[in-house]
Amino acid sequence: MAQTVNDVTDLMSDKTRRPKASFQIPIAIKYFFMMLVIGMLLLILIMGGKALRDAPPAAIHVSTQGLTATQYQALQRVMGQQRVSSFFTSDLQVLRDITMGLSWVDQVSITRDWQSGIVVRALPKQAVANFGTERLVDAKGTVFVPADDRELTQVQFATLQGEMTQAPVIMQQMQQINGWYAPLDMRVEDIILSPRMTWLIRFDNGLRVIVDNENTAQKLLNLSQLLGNQLNTRRDDMQSIDLRYKNGFTIAWNIKAPQTETSDE
Question: Buried (b) or exposed (e) across 6-27, using 16+ Cβ within 10 A?
Fold first, then answer.
């Protein structure tokens, strides 16, 4: 009996030690399939690249939102002159730079849209004053040429004059003066900054003020207080005021035409 158990044990141990048969894919076949996959991927990339190169030029759609008819036509004309590639390969930054190169454009957004193509959305600068006779200026003091010449020299706007680089300074000065003289019901109609940094200001009531660049703000503020108090009753009689003095100013008065006497015969 012991002999039989031992024989069975030996047989089981022989099965355990016997190596299992396994199927191994040859290395050559592995490399073949690997190269086949790589080749298919390269083929897809090549075909995709060719499809992009051969794709028709993308359509450029200019949005009318926020634009006047003239502004839309001006932007449409510029975009129509641009050569673009396909929907995916067109350089949107280039189109954005071209759009921002238009003097009157303030903001621009360019996106890809599956239905419309490349969509250009632009917002124009908002003019608050004339700058000379050929340009406008916005609240930030940015000088620009409008898309429509009919927007120039608008009568409801004040007119700023000076060097274009000084436009933000002139705009800030005008806004400050308007704030000081608002209680007197006076607004700036024309303001000029000369190359010698002399300010010439004409208000909507006809009063002209000239002031140098030394303590300019303080002189103009003091004048507004005087016109509202001591000189209040004489304001309509003034033609111009010269503030280019350290300790005072001069006033030029309007000359009233003499009244002619009439006699009844």
Answer: eeeeeeeeeeeeeeeeeeeeee
Sequence-separated (6 or more) residues with CB below 8 Å from residue 249: 219, 223, 241, 242, 243
Q: What is the CATH number of the domain that holds 72?
A: 3.10.20
pLDDT digits (tens, 9 = 90+) for 20-66: 555 566 777 766 667 777 877 776 766 655 555 554 567 889 999 99
| Distance separating alpha carbons of residues 27 and 37, to the nearest angstrom | 16
**pTM of this structure:** 0.71
9-17, long-range: CB < 8 A, 24+ apart? none
Query: End of a domain among 124, 155, 170?
Result: 124
Q: Minimal CA–CA distance to 201: which of 237, 226, 166, 175? A: 175
The number of folded domains in the chain is 2
Domain range spanning residue 108?
A: 60-124
